[in-house]
Specification:
Structural class: alpha+beta
Number of strands: 5
Shape: globular
Largest sheet: 5 strands, mixed
Strand order of the largest sheet: 2-1-5-3-4
Number of helices: 5
Order of helices and strands: EEHEEEHHHH
Distance between the termini: 36 Å
Radius of gyration: 16 Å
Helix content: 25-40%
Strand content: 5-15%
């Protein structure tokens, strides 16, 4: 199969039972996405598939043939951080760092959803642009768990990034 990963076309031969997470980590040497629960519950494996957030442990790699995947390694250029990554550092939005790649990919996807005007379960008025409140950020990031409970710092980093966009 051929897949675009972080802007580069990659060809890989895989067993049809291989998850996207295992393909990224074991066959493409992209170890940013973490294997946490392997059941789609923790979000540490979150990547962007065609610009949308997915839990890569739940996606068979063969289903992404010809599609585009962005991992945490592809969020910024080789010598600089993305504004979101810089905000995570500035707000100490990570403790042990295990969930950070998934949090970053999820936050990037969430910010893109907000820019498209997509509502969440807590969006109050569906006829006006989404206001990115703390409650809105928490709801949208609910699929990503942090064992160290850095949630207030993550919310602050996402809020800062959204405000500067």
């Amino acid at each position: 199969m051929t897949v675009e990963v972080n802007g580069a076309s990659r060809e890989v031969a895989l067993d049809n039972r291989t998850t996207l997470l295992d393909a990224l980590r074991e066959h493409l040497d992209l170890t940013g996405a973490k294997k946490g629960c392997d059941h789609g519950q923790c979000g540490s494996c979150t990547v962007l598939l065609d610009g949308r957030r997915v839990k890569s442990c739940l996606v068979f790699a063969v289903t992404v043939d010809g599609r585009s995947v962005v991992t945490v390694e592809g969020l910024a250029g080789p010598d600089e951080l993305s504004p979101l990554q810089a905000a995570f550092i500035a707000h100490d939005a990570f403790q042990c760092g295990y969930c950070t790649p998934g949090q970053l990919c999820s936050a990037r996807g969430m910010l893109d959803e907000v820019s498209r005007g997509w509502p969440s379960a807590v969006t109050g008025d569906l006829n006006t642009p989404v206001e990115l409140t703390d409650a809105e950020i928490r709801e949208r990031m609910a699929g990503n768990l942090c064992r160290c409970a850095a949630y207030p710092h993550i919310v602050a980093a996402v809020r800062e990034t959204a405000a500067s966009s």
